[in-house]
Amino acid sequence: QHLADSKNDNDNIFLSPLSISTAFAVTKLGACN
């Protein structure tokens, strides 16, 4: 169970910046258009 929690935390650490970057890119494209 603990290993599963650790894996989930690692996924969140990886996905969070990725989501922020994607959201920023979409916002920037929207502003340009």
Automatic annotation (TrEMBL):
Protein origin, superkingdom: Eukaryota
Protein name: Antithrombin
